Every structure is written in structure tokens, then in C-alpha cells.
Amino acid sequence: MKYIHTTLVLLVFNAFFAQEINVEKIWKKYEYRTQGVDGFNSLKDGDRYTQMDEQGNVVLAFISKPNEAPSILIDAKDLSYRGKQVIIEDYSFDQSERKVLIMTSITPIYRRSYHAVYYLYDLDTKVLKALAEEYSPQTLAEYSPDGTKVSFIHKNDLYVKDLLTEKISPITTDGKRNKIINGTTDWVYEEEFSITQAYSWSPDSKYIAFLKFVEKKVKEFGIDMYGELYPDRFEYKYPKAGEDNSNVTAHWVAVSKPQKINPISLGSYEYIPRIQWSNVSNRLLLQTMNRHQDSLRYHMVDFSVGKKPVQQILYTDHSNTYVDVNESLHFMPNGNGFFFTSEKSGYNQLYALDYSGKLSSISDGELDLIDAYGVSQDGTHFYFTRSEQLGVSKVLCQINVQTKEVKILSPFEGWMDASFTQGMKYFVGTYSDANTPPVYGLYNGNGTLIKVLADNADLKVKLSALNLSKKEFQRIEVNGVNLNASVILPPDFDQSNKYPVYMNVYGGPGHNEVTNQWDGNDFMFHQLLASNGYIVVSVDPRGTQYRGAAFKKATYLQLGKLEVEDFIGTAKYFQSLPYVDANRIGIMGWSYGGFMSSLAVTKGADVFRMGIAVAPVTNWRYYDNIYTERFMRTPQENPAGYDTNSPINHVDKLKGKFLLVHGMADDNVHFQNSIDMISALVKANKQFDFFAYPNKNHGIYGGNTRNHLFSMMYDYILKNL
């Protein structure tokens, strides 16, 4: 009996500890990773779709037949070239949907750009060919709309391959690294305008329009990569605030005469953040912005009216602060205009603009539109997401373009994203809330669920065995403003006790921390802290989004000032609560959040006992000009805005514990930011902790890196807060 009793105790003991959360389970074993639905590719009829299965095959299925097993469209075993297996990493179809462009050996360059090796595969003949062995690797390859040609970029030049003759024709020949780029973008456009493809086919396949970047005046930044006897030096063009940009120009070429490149005159501008042909008619749309980014022009170049294209400015969007670029325009099915979004009313809303320049409001009110997905094939309904729950939730909506009637398609309050099939007949909807992992469902265009594709049931069972605390949302009044906040209390919370507060922050334009959606491994890390007796808090200060333009743009010309005031005010609010240990308030942030935590632990030294800054901006003079000048103008115009709120200029105030972490190969927020912060701290004779990750970029990941980073931060929090 004694032996049995001991065994039972050990089993219970081991079962209990097996269910505990720890950093290794989160960031090394990834035990709480969610299951998703990847590679859902809609075909033209809006009913058929393809995906890759676990064996690497491309399979075909029908939405209208949800219970029918998919069939193999491309058998991975059949794909070999010159005796070598070709592994499909991504793929796209031509207009006939019988020929496939296969991507393999994809190698990332920056956040969105890549190199790859492309192959052409014929579904009927089962023949696999290399796209262009003599021009390998390539990037941004795509079929012409008529399927007779393939365009691609190689070494900063644009090429077209005629699939009938196998002839490859260069459109440009002057491309050279760190000098001239054709058809794709420079680093800063990729990072801040979210664009890498800078060329586009006309719908009749007769023309290609493209952008040319002349980088000669842009200064280079160098990054050392370690591992060899002598480090490799990677140098690239990075325009810092106030410095020269690439000279960007727009051009078009008739594919039948590729040697003749025609310029497109766009008047006075600094940026061309978008270039896009209508998918209905030969009308080319371009967006241009001035350097201050307070004026956005919509240009049309009409190739459908005669021998020479006709140009006009359709519309100009102005702001007394800044205007956001439209991620993409959605063309009316009748070919008469397009839909776009603007904050001109004070909230981000949907508008229609026809080619005569007539502007019509489609949506209105005081709920920001977030994602503009597109218009139905008959032109009657537009699909978008908008903010709800006072800016914390995101719901999917359908609006009748004529009556303006809005129908909410989200099944519950929380966070909804969607990926639509062609023609907007169906969509894959992804729903989650702050305490529930995502569920992926297949819906028709009216929001009726057809089939659950993935529900993360196994993860939910695993989470139910843990003693998790619920993330709750509240509004707190700070500095006379109501701010959205989220709170995770310790699982055994007792109001008669005193708890430390750990604040996780970001605070910058374009990203909110307080959202009613599943936050994955970050959520689990916060649960780990809560299980150790910490109250975990996030708050979205003035300057964040989903609450109208005035709230978002309140920080214009003074990044850091109002946000850190709101973070300090939030900390003071929690200090006033009877169950909070007022002497144990800590703050952590990454990137813009690292800027905020660095400012908070210095400007708010009497409030914050501990701060952690990962990959922080420490002086906006060091950051790229498109992002920084959008909110601050240039350092020459606004020197006080840059210097007054730089944490480098407040290090003398530091009192608490401070951990500074940075990746040494960060191409986005340069390691320079932390180096100069260190110099200032040393000069001020302030003790601090510092850790650098060699060869790691802004994400600080790869191998055991994330596990190491979060283990270090976890230990630091336990020791110092």
C-alpha cells in the first residue's frame, strides 16, 4: 500500500507540473501554436480552390461540395527537373488555369522581398520547365493576363519571356544594386509603403507600367555579419529622417516594342507609393505624395481613348497632418471607377470615385473602417471590416453600395479577418477573441457558415487543463482621456493582497496592443507572468488607431510626448488601486514599444521600478524618413520634436533597473539606436543591463533565439519586479 500511495503521489505531482506553463514550452517547443488554414487559393469561378497538402501536392476542391475529398491536381512526385526533385513552395496560375508558375528555393531579402527559382508547369502535358536559368534567381514573376508571357525581375531589371517563342526580352538594362532599381522597390518603400512589386500589366497584356528608383543620392548603411574570421559587411541604401530619397519615376512600355520606354509625367511629388492597372479597362492608376505626406493625389493614365494615353488627376486627398496611402484600390466591375478609403470625415470611411472625378460617400459614422476587401461581382455590395467595442474589436461587414445598409457578418464579438475567393462569392473567415484561439470557417458571401476548416480544438483542450486567467477589457481615464486597457489578473487573485504590475506596451501609430483577439505566444507569456503573481496590463495611448483621426493624429510633430504621459498616467492609476504594490510597476516594449519603455523608465523614473526595451528607437533622427517624417516632418523643420522626447536626452533621470536588448543585424531599427543609448547612459554614470544578438534582425528569432530572449526577460522580471 505504501508503494502504491507513493506512485500515485508522484503521478499526480508529475501531471500537475506537466501542465504548468514555462518559457521553453512557449518559445522553444511551441506547444501553444495555433493551427491555421494556409495556401487557400481561389480559382476564377469562385467555387474551386487549391491548397497544398502535407505531402507537398497541390490539391483541388470545391466549396459547393464541402464533404467531397479533394483531388490531386499536381503530384509532387512528378516534379523533377534534370533529375532533381522540385519542391513547391508557392505557385500561381495563368488565366486558363492550366499552366502553373512554381516557386522554389525562396530566400528572404528584407521583410517582404525575396529571391526564388521559378518553374513553368503544364497541367495537360505534365511538362516542367525552368523559367529562365540564365537569369536566376528571380523575383516577382507573374503571367501576363492573356497567359502568353511571363514577366520577372532579375538583378534590378525587368524582363518578359514569350512562352511561344521562349525568347526573353529585357525591358530595362540599367539596373544595378544600390544604384538603380526597375520594377521593384527600395528598402524604405518596402518597409513603409508595404510594396515590393512596382510593375503592373495592362488587362489586355499590351503594356507594362513600372517604377524606376535611382538610389545614387541615398546614403548607405552597413551591417556586420559575424561567423567568419573577418565579418561580412552588408551595405544597403537607407534614407534616414531629413536625408535624400531615391528619385522615383513612372514609365510605360508597349510589350511589342520593349526597347522604347515612355515616361509618365506626374508633376511635383516625392513618392509614388502605388501603381496599378484597372482589371477592367486599360486605365492606369497611380498615387503620388509630397514629402510631408499631407497630400495624396490619384492620377489616371487612360490608354483606352486613342493612340496616345491621356493623363488627369482624378482626386487629391488633403490633411493638416498626414494622409495614409491606400493599400489597394478596388475597381468597379462596370469599369467606371474605383473604391478607396479616406479619413477626410474624421473617421476612415469608404468612398467611390468615378473617372469623371465625381466622389461619393459609401459608408459614414464614427466607426473606423479597417480592411477594405472588395466589391461583389455584380457591384452591389462591398466587404470590409470596421472597429467595434469602442475600438477593441474588429467585425466583418457587408454594405449595400446603393442603400448604404450595413450587415455584420461576424458570428460573435471579437476579431474577424477574411480572405475572399474571386468574385467575392465565398470567404475564409478567421475568428478569435482575447481568450479563444482562432476558428477558421468557410462562408458564403452573405456570412452563412458552410464548413469549419480548423477550430484548434486540441489546443483548446490543452489550454483548459491550465489555470489560465481571463484577459479583461476596460476603459480608464488618464490625463482627461478615456483609454482602452486590457488586464490579466493572477489566477488566485485576492483583493486583500498587493500585486506588482507588468505593463506591455507599443503605443505607436498603426498598431494597437489592446485588441479582442488571440495573441498567441505573447498571451501565454503573460499568463506565465500572471501565474507568478503579476498583474499584466496593456493600454493604447493617444496616437493609436481605431478611434478616429483626431485620436490617432494627436501625437503629430511630437512622437513620444503624449504616449509616455499616458503610460505614466496609467501606471499611476494602477498605483492607486488597493491591491497593487505601488513600488513594483514595470514596463516592457519592442520597437516603438522599446522607445516608449525607454522614455517611461527615464521620464517616469519615480513611477517605474523596471523597464525592458527590445530593439528600441532612441532618437527619431536615426529612423527612416518615410515613417518618421509622416509624423514628425524633417529634423531640419522640427528639431525640438526630435530631441525633446528622445530617451537619450533623459538618461540622467534613470533610477530603476533597465534592460536594453537589440539584434546587431537589425536593418529596420538600427543597432546604432542602442549603441548611442549606451553611450549616453555611460556618460550619465547610470548602471544598466544590456544584451546583443549577433546576426539577428528586428524580429530577433531563429534557432533558440526567441527562447533565450524570453527566458532572459522572464528571469529579469522575476528578479527586479
Summarize the structure.
The protein is α+β, with helices and mostly antiparallel strands. It is 17% helix and 37% strand.
Topology of this structure?
Blueprint: H1 2-18, H2 23-27, E1 41-42, E2 48-52, E3 58-62, E4 71-74, E5 80-81, E6 84-85, E7 90-93, E8 99-108, E9 114-122, E10 128-130, E11 139-143, E12 149-154, E13 157-162, E14 168-170, E15 180-182, H3 187-192, E16 199-201, E17 207-214, E18 220-225, E19 232-237, E20 247-254, E21 261-264, E22 271-277, E23 283-289, E24 295-302, E25 310-318, E26 330-331, E27 337-342, E28 349-354, E29 359-361, E30 369-375, E31 381-388, E32 393-400, E33 406-408, E34 415-420, E35 426-433, E36 436-444, E37 449-454, H4 457-464, E38 471-478, E39 481-488, E40 499-505, H5 520-531, E41 535-540, H6 549-552, H7 561-575, E42 580-590, H8 592-603, E43 610-614, H9 625-632, H10 639-644, E44 657-663, H11 672-683, E45 689-693, H12 705-720
Parallel strand pairs: 40-41, 40-42, 42-43, 43-44, 44-45
Antiparallel strand pairs: 1-2, 2-3, 3-4, 5-6, 7-8, 8-9, 9-10, 11-12, 12-13, 13-14, 15-17, 16-17, 17-20, 18-19, 20-21, 22-23, 23-24, 24-25, 26-27, 27-28, 28-29, 30-31, 31-32, 32-33, 34-35, 35-36, 36-37, 38-39, 39-41
**What is the structural class?**
alpha+beta
CATH class of the domain at 10-31 and 470-720 reads: Alpha Beta
Specify Rg, calculated over alpha carbons: 27 Å
Mean pLDDT across all residues, rounded?
95
CATH architecture of the domain at 10-31 and 470-720: 3-Layer(aba) Sandwich
Q: Strand portion, in percent?
A: 35-45%
Uncertain parts:
1-18
The CATH topology of the domain at 10-31 and 470-720 comes to Rossmann fold
